[in-house]
Write a structure and sequence with these properties.
The protein is 63% helix and 4% strand. Helix 1 packs antiparallel against helix 2, helix 1 packs parallel to helix 3 and helix 2 (33-60) runs antiparallel to helix 3 (64-94). By secondary structure, it is mostly helical. The longest helix has 31 residues, at 64-94. Strands 1-2 form a two-stranded antiparallel sheet.
């Protein structure tokens, strides 16, 4: 049974690396938001299967050394998944915001607008030497 999980893990890890490779081979963000969302959804589904395989293999393990081996085998899978997610999210942030007229007279954006940076006013915080703590606490 554990051989099946190992084969399945290998197969799905190959699929995850394939998505990552597909995204990496494009030097500039030329994907649409829908494509990037699709990459994220596919990778999330693949990672769910990989996580399940890992959990099943860990349950089969007879001792801590075997669990460590499984965790070490899973580490590059997690690294690839997080690299893929980071890459896609960075690409989404790099996409220009385009506004088109919607059917209801409003405007719609091709991606969520990047939050504006707001400079908040400075506030003065009380300082104390330590012996004044009871009065500051009250």
């Amino acid at each position: 049974m554990s051989v099946d999980y190992v084969k399945r893990r290998s197969s799905y890890f190959t699929k995850l690396k394939s998505i990552l490779s597909e995204i990496k081979k494009v030097p500039t963000p030329v994907f649409r938001v829908t494509q990037l969302d699709e990459f994220l959804e596919r990778s999330k589904n693949i990672m769910a299967v990989l996580d399940d395989c890992h959990n099943q293999l860990v349950q089969i393990c007879a001792n801590e050394a075997d669990i460590t081996i499984q965790d070490q085998a899973f580490a590059p899978i997690e690294a690839a998944y997080f690299e893929l997610r980071t890459l896609v999210m960075d690409m989404k942030l790099a996409l220009p915001t385009t506004t088109t007229a919607g059917g209801g007279g409003g405007a719609s954006s091709s991606r969520a607008a990047t939050p504006a940076t707001i400079k908040l006013p400075s506030i003065e915080l009380p300082s104390f030497s330590g012996s004044e703590w009871p009065s500051l606490y009250e």
